[in-house]
DinB family protein
Amino acid sequence: MTDSSPRTDARTALRDQLAIEWSYANEYIIGQISPELAAWKPCHSSVTVHETPNGWTADWIDEDNDTVPAPPTIGWLLWHIEWWWTNTLAQVNNEPMSDPADFLGSGSTHRIMELKAQWDDVLATRDLDEPIDWVMPTPQPLGCVAGWVNFELAKNLSEIGQLKMLHANR
């Protein structure tokens, strides 16, 4: 018996996955985050962002620390999405990545929308088997990097959704 079901290639799967995540972002995140909501701290030790004359800096979580980190602010999560996409696009284009301590975010979902459009172009046109020198010890195929970045976006969006619910019901 042969399998006659349609097969989805990796490019279609990655683009469809991103489309689902972005649909959620458009419905519940983009245009719905006020400056007050972005700055709201769910607890006193929450990591957040700080405005400077040149952009937004972020507190950085020590990922090697064994203690459970405090929940971040929505502003920090938006900064994190911007940092991930900016750095990944830089690596895809053979440019250097920014250290989190040096990265200045825009403080705007408009920049995230611009980065999403650039990421759409990468997913539509680039060779998904191309090795990318990224955050892993060895280069990874762009398709694997794309899966990771899509996952990071989904994770950050779900955290923003949870924080919006907590804020609304505090």
Remarks:
- The longest strand covers residues 49-52.
